Amino acid sequence: MVKRLTTISRLLLGASVASSVAASGCGIDPRIWGNLTSSDYDTPPPAGVQTVTGVASLIGTGGTVAFFTPGGVALTTQSTTTTTDGAFTTTFPATAAFENTVVVSANAATATWGLVPRVPKKATVYDPSLTIAMGTDVPNAEGQAAAVTFMADLDEDATAATLLLLAKAHLSQPESTLASLTPDAVIDSLAEIQALFEDDDIRLTPVREMVARIVGGGITTRPALRPFPTTGQSYLDLAALKAGADYDGDGTADTSTAAFDEALERAMASLQFDVCYATDVIRVVLVVDFREGGKDGNCNAINLWKWTIDAPDKHMFITGSLHASTPNCTADPAPCLENTVFDAASQQMGNWSPNTIPMYDDGTHGDKVAGDNLWTITFDLPWFDAGAPNARWVRIAYKYTWGSQGALWTGSEEWPGNQRILELRDINGDRIITRQDLYGDETSNKDKSNLRSPGNGGCGTVLWQSDLPKEGRNPNCVDDTLESQIDTNGDCTLDSWPSDFSAAPITVPCEE
Ligand SMILES: [Ca+2]
Ligand SMILES: [Ca+2]
Ligand SMILES: [Ca+2]
Ligand SMILES: [Ca+2]
Hints:
The chain has 512 residues and is α+β, with helices and mostly antiparallel strands.
């Protein structure tokens, strides 16, 4: 795909971009480019990076700076070190959006925290790269720069404010993360905390003073606050305090985290926002991996082209509907769906018209990375909590097609005659249903003619997992009908929850 640059492309791009064209990847936006040059089909420029700069003056020179997703996954590519007076700079790939990123700057004795609410991805590769100073230029949803003055220096107060937001989500019921808040909600919440700090609000003063002593008071042997404690664990790591340390300032050495935990709880009660989830609708993210080399449930290589014929203009579609066995209020007791709701949801999924509902590999609609051949679609589907795992939940059926808009089934479908089935139960507690499938995998949730071998748990068909345990069922039937982990390293053992998507749960205003 690398071709010579035409004169017109040089004029359009300018010399600086043109000089980097040779190093770019294919697939980011070739159609736009093809139209511009009409006859020539040139490689577009690379998407490049967005730059984030910050200061951690308390940490000083030579400290570490680590970045984490709101759920606590380290973004190792972004990690860096501080230079003079704690300044740091890092870059994020502009092909994906990074929301509510947590920053931890540390030296041997202590650590301070901050938040970067939004690092946007580029809508097109021709967008200019941004440099985002943490305190002054955080882009909001409208793309305007918002000031988050606190974050100009990751000091004691930036740490306390970050702690309050992390804890507010973590300690909510059900437990959550800052992924459930929009970046603008985080920007607003930081402004709210800043106003409370400026007013010396007495509800926040105790925890604010404790954080200042813990991170800046020389009473620790190593960083003593945990940004991502496990359930039930304190944010304060008592073992990191020096012997005789007095973190609450009452003149006596502290031997428990109780004072800190109580102060944090009191401060959180002063914050307005709560995280509440919609109860009648759930976000469903379906990702299909169309890369060569995937292995199926028998650990055999998948042939993408067993039933599917390739052509230059093809891309990924999905079609499906709610599954007929979903509890229906005309026949089943509550919880159930009304016919009108059932029909509307099925329509949303394409209602089994092939090649009408496109999937996305352009970084939109929940797709994380453009051009990586992982195709994504997000549906907000009617939902209810059926309670027990062996109750019937909302169920969907679907199939992927590699086709052109409006084409018929033949030569575009994964396989003829069967469908994939999925029950909308949130197994990993993130309030999203995520399912990452391998295109053409006939050993997974393919319903009727399933090729999973008996030795790998197959019996020729798939049973709903929620129909377990039921008398008379073949104990050897695969029940791969729920969101599940995926195999990320090709060893045929499932190891990780899907993370190559960009979606947050559906939140609603909490009732008073
Ligand atoms: Ca004390
Ligand atoms: Ca993708
Ligand atoms: Ca989930
Ligand atoms: Ca694995």
